[in-house]
Every structure is written in C-alpha cells, then in structure tokens.
Amino acid sequence: MTDPSRLALVPFVSVADMMRLVHHIGLETVLTELAAEIEADFRRWESFDKTPRVASHSDVGVIELMPTSDGSFYGFKYVNGHPKNMKEGLQTVTAFGLLADVSTGYPVLLSEMTILTALRTAATSAMAAKHLAPKNATTLAIIGNGAQSEFQALAFKAVNGITEVRLYDIDRSATEKCARNLAGKGLTVVPCRSAEEAIEGAQIITTCTADKQYATILSDNMVGRGVHINAIGGDCPGKTELARAILDRSDIFVEYPPQTRVEGEIQQLDADHPVKELWQVITGAVPGRADADAITLFDGVGFAIEDFSALRYVHGRLRDSGHFLELDMIADPDEPRDLFGMLMRAG
Amino acid sequence: MTDPSRLALVPFVSVADMMRLVHHIGLETVLTELAAEIEADFRRWESFDKTPRVASHSDVGVIELMPTSDGSFYGFKYVNGHPKNMKEGLQTVTAFGLLADVSTGYPVLLSEMTILTALRTAATSAMAAKHLAPKNATTLAIIGNGAQSEFQALAFKAVNGITEVRLYDIDRSATEKCARNLAGKGLTVVPCRSAEEAIEGAQIITTCTADKQYATILSDNMVGRGVHINAIGGDCPGKTELARAILDRSDIFVEYPPQTRVEGEIQQLDADHPVKELWQVITGAVPGRADADAITLFDGVGFAIEDFSALRYVHGRLRDSGHFLELDMIADPDEPRDLFGMLMRAG
Q1: Span B6-115+305-345: which CATH code?
Q2: Do A339 and B98 touch (CB under 8 A)?
Q3: Is A235 part of the annotated catalytic residue set?
Q4: Superkingdom, according to UniProt (chains A, B) (predicted)?
Q5: B35: distance to nearest CA of chain A, Å?
Q6: If 0-12 CB within 10 Å is exposed, 13-18 middle and 19+ buried, where does residue B6 land?
Q7: pLDDT(B116) > 70
Q8: For residues B135-156, average pLDDT
C-alpha cells in the first residue's frame, strides 16, 4: 500500500499540542489576539451563515454541534455539557472542532477545543466588557471558580486592565484552586466567603457556575448601579444564574437572539423582551452602555462564530508553531472516482 | 509534562486503517453485516433522536452534519458534496464521523467515513431492496459508474443474490473502471452503451450519478412494470435523477420524510404526496411491494441512523482488528476543574 497523498492529510492539534501552542505564543497574548479576532468577526457578522446550535439532550447532559461559515471557511465545534461529570473525575465540558475549505469541502484543521473553548469564552467575555463595562474598571468578581475562572481573570487583565479579582464558589476548594493558580500572575487575588463579599467594589461581575438548574447566583439586592454583569454560566435550557428582577433592571446584550432566547438568562423573560445584539454595538449601529449608572448584562451563551474565530486563529498559527500531527482522514484515490480500486489495492 | 491519561485518548480509524479493517473482515462480509446492523436499527427507529441534516450550501457544494442518538450512543457524520471536485482530482464526497458516550459526552471513536459511507450506502440500498425488489431478482443495472458503483454491485450480490450487473455512465471511462474493478468478483459484468441498454432485463435499477442539477437519468418510457428502482444520486436540493412521471407510477419508500422531501426525488412532488417509511416496512406496519407488477422506488438520500449503525459496527470491531491510533483529543486534568493548572504545568 502506498502512503496517503498530501490531500489526504489533515493537521490535528492534540491537547498536548494546544498547550504547547499557548506557551509558544504566551497565554495573555493568545487571549488578547483571540479577543481581537472574535471582535473582527463580530464586526462582519452579516457575512456569516448562522444557525442555533444543534443539541441532543439526555437526562444527564447535552451534546451539541455548532456550525458556521463565512463563505471561505466552514467550522464546527462538538461540545458536551455534563455537570455530573465532575464528581466522576471527568470534565464537565469537552470539545473539539474542525475547520474546512468551503470551496472543496476538505477539512484543513482538526483541533482539541476543551482548552480552546475556555480561551475563546474568556476572550469573548473580555471583548464584550470592552464595549459595555464602566470606563476604568479595575475590579472583577468571579462567582463560580471552576475550569473557566482563571481564563476569565487573565482575559480581563489582558484586555480590560483589571488589577483585582475577587473569588467566590460554594465549594471553598474551588476558590482555593483558582487563587493558587492565579498567584504570581500580576493580579491582586481576594478569596471571599460569600457572593456578597466577592462583589464588594467590583465594577464587573462574572457568573460562571456549572449546575444545570434554575439557580440564583445573584439576587436583585446584590447588584448596584453602574455594574457590568458577564453572565456565562447560564447556557442551556433550564440553566440560569440571575434573579429575574436583575434582568428587568438591565440593558441586555446577547450574541445571537434565536439561541440566547432558549439558552441564556433571558429564557426567564418574554420572547419579545428587548435585547441588543453585541455585534451591532461593535459596528456602532446600536449604543452600548447608556451612562455610568446603567446596569449592562452580557448574557453570553457561546456562539459558533467565536469557535470559528478561534479555529481560524489556531490554523493561522500552525505552521509557525509546528505543533501538530497529520491525520490520514480523507480518502484520496489517484483517480477520484476509483475509491473501490484504492480499497482493493490496499488488500 | 506527563502523558495524557486513558480518558484523554480517542480511538481513530484512519483511511489506511479502515482499508485494513475491511480486508481483515472481508468486503462482502462487511456489507452483509452492515446491512444487518442498519436493518436492526431501522427496526427500532422510534428509539432514535432524529433531525434533518444541518447543511451549509455554497455555490460549488454543500457541507453537512448528520447527528443522531439512541440514548446510549451519540453519533454524527461530517460530509461534503462537491460535484466539481472530481475534475480537480478531488473526491466529490469525503466524510468522517464520531461516536460518543451519551452518559459522559466523551467521544469513543473518530473514524474516516469516505470509505465507510460508500459501504453503508450500498448496504442500505441492498437492505431496502431485500424488502422491496421483486423476488428472485438476478440482474442489476447501475446508471452512474462513479465511486459508489462497485460497492453497490457487491452489496446487491452479497445481500440480494444478484448475479449480473449492467453498467452505464455518460463517461465511458467510468464504466470501464467499474467493469475492471468488478472483474473476478463473481458477477457477470456487462458494460453498456446507453441507459436503455443497461436496464434491459434488469429487475433492479440503481441510479447513482453525481451532477448537482435536475437531471433525467431515467425517463418514463424506460421503466417497465415490476421493477425496483434504487435512486440514490438525487440527494440534495436541486439534484434529482428521475422523470417526474416515474414517481407518479411508483410506490415510493423513503428513510426520513422531513429530509427526503427536501433532498430526494420527491422534491419534485407536492409536499403531501404519499410516501412510505422504510422502517415501517421492516417492522411490518406498512406493506412493501404490493404485487409483481408494482414499481417500487427507494428514494434514498442517506440518513444519520445509517452512519450511526456503521460507526457502531466499526467501534465493535476495533479491538478485534487492532487497526486504530489513539488521539489525545480530550483534555483530562487530574482535577476536573483544574484545566488551567494542567495548562500551566505543561509550560
């Protein structure tokens, strides 16, 4: 049997290679560059094929496919969400993704996306806050100190100039883990005993808890004027983090309304409750923060275009970093119609 | 950096490994066993999550995701269709697929599916014909002698007892390629100069041409009483192979009506034109062939459950054949919430 041709080979970025790539470039640089890539793609929002993600729900979790295309590249992500996994020593969220050439349909990149999703989620949060948070914000509260929390902290440091993070989790060991990981990273880190304590003096509040239920991580009386809330933990039907009264007092910004209406905090509201689309704030078509007293809420659920931006970013850095394998994923017979002959000659 | 844990590793069947697997088991055995797996899954049709495939169309082709789940396993296929690829030395259709454990969301198999799709398409056609074709059919006409044709011929031999195949393609070299590949495989192979000549004496007619257009591969006067038509080339919007008048004279059987109404031959018909679901024929809920004079038409477009059956078949045979790699695709930190710590320790 002859070796597969070049066309048959798809670059694959494993978990180990993704970690090498991040260290090669530098974590805060990756977060900053990703935020810029995602912002650039939000700016050309109308050039993308958009569809709500395709979800398969079970009693214990969800498996989703998130496709999009800009006409040149096509990308999709596979991602699961299984809150109970953590207790079994497994990741709540794992993911991988693929980028393909629209003109041929051939894949050009397969990549792990568990790490990459944490990076792009943090970059998206920071990018949204750049447009919505009060000017000169210095303090970030993070409620929920799981796998996303450190990425959030460093993205807000790198993109928004945050200098202090205040941490709270119902599980004290999660807060300790997060504080330990952030030590020496150039942030003042304050572990807190309650959500109330964590939000003291914070201009930005990130909620990123994992339970699949209607929860009240923030109650109405906890949220004062002028705050920006980055609510990213409520991201599937039946999973929310904020008291409804907070939503009624907030200017709400979302990625893609047809998806967020089903999955985000706004699933608590009527289907016609006014929300603003983040991409329109970025293009200037819609105002962002009205004044210093406004409560802005980014109801982030994660959208396919963010994954697309992240995959394209990795694809663009591949040759430079050299950290990938090549997989024989695409059958490529010498004569395209002779798939059978290729199979027979391999015998 | 430590090696990835077992949980991080996903078995990957490359194109080369798929070819080894097929030769390890034997091609006709694979086709027969696949037909049985698909039939078994059609028999429990109601236990599957079903959705029309998620398609992204461009001027030159389509990229599709085809997910399904039976509650224990979740599977999806990525597949493109680019008819113009062939002229550029590329495959018209390439594919890969993934099987995951519903209870954890963790992938358990990544596999090439260009070859596997050809196998499952042929196995599905033969399985449908087992229930719909006239008894004791011996002769198969294949119009369109591209990448699918030899697989079709051998599936009908293995599953339906076909002894003669009659070949026609507008491109003579495709017919010659197909005839050459089928030489010595236990079939009488008759290359023909026209579609009319090919269908002479055939009880079963397979149409599997690749052009993305409304074509008339079979005109009304060519189709006599008692024939079974296996129409698998018309499989996306704007792509059909049969004259509409043939549809009006046929009993039409489909996989999943919401998908076939858009993609199959029946896109030419009114949305309420009666069709029968193949799975109901298999369970006995709906009659198949009415009598010896009926024209039966399997309007096959390919459905996600067939890919699911094929992926599960490969997954079940992996350990026996040993032909796979293990990919470090899933981030698996020692402490599930400590994704960041894993990344930092890799630095």
Answers
A1: 3.30.1780.10
A2: no
A3: yes
A4: Bacteria
A5: 18
A6: exposed
A7: yes
A8: 96
